[in-house]
Amino acid sequence: MGKPKTESSLKPSQASATAKYLRVPPRKARLVMDAVRGKYVSDALAALQFVPNFAARAIEKVIKSAVSNAENGRPNGENGRPLQPLITENLRLVRGTIDEGPRIKRVQPRAQGRAYRIIKRMCHISVIVEEVEPKPRKPRATAAGRRARAAGRTTPSSGTAAPSRGGRRGHAAPASQAGNEPVPSTTTSPEGAAAETATAE
Length: 201
Prior knowledge:
By secondary structure, the protein is α+β, with helices and mostly antiparallel strands. The chain has six helices and three strands; from the N terminus they run βαααββααα. It has helices at 26-36, 41-48, 54-71, 143-154, 175-179, 190-200, and strands spanning 14-22, 91-109, 115-131. A three-stranded antiparallel beta sheet has the order 1-3-2. A hairpin with a 5-residue loop joins strand 2 (91-109) and strand 3 (115-131).
């Protein structure tokens, strides 16, 4: 992996920060850096707050240092004059590299005169932030629009009959249920049936 860019090779809209010899394994630091690379600085810092990892705390400090350099530590331009400070809200993490540092070798004594080797790895963290276009924001709905949508959800549409609660799904309810009118009984008692038969004869 190549060397990180120096201050002289940065664009006028960029700022950088570097932290070296951190007691963080490079593999664990790369997992966190991959999750925030390419995001706006505000979004990256908000995401790092919920990462329960020591590497997240180290990367968070480096990003904040780069933001501070963008505001106050601007180098001089080609004409020898200091560059204008960048807008913090428009900064994006365009580059974040994790380089492997030196290794600390230790020994853990074990049984029967044996010893296990312990390797404590270090890493170097380098980030570059750049001022880009403002972060797009979703247009907020007006109060009148919100009230219109709420009224459309609560007001039933005109001209449609309410579904009947009685009967099976897909079948119309009987007229007696729709109009709440009593239905005349069609059943007759045995005495009434005998009287009707005698009259007919």
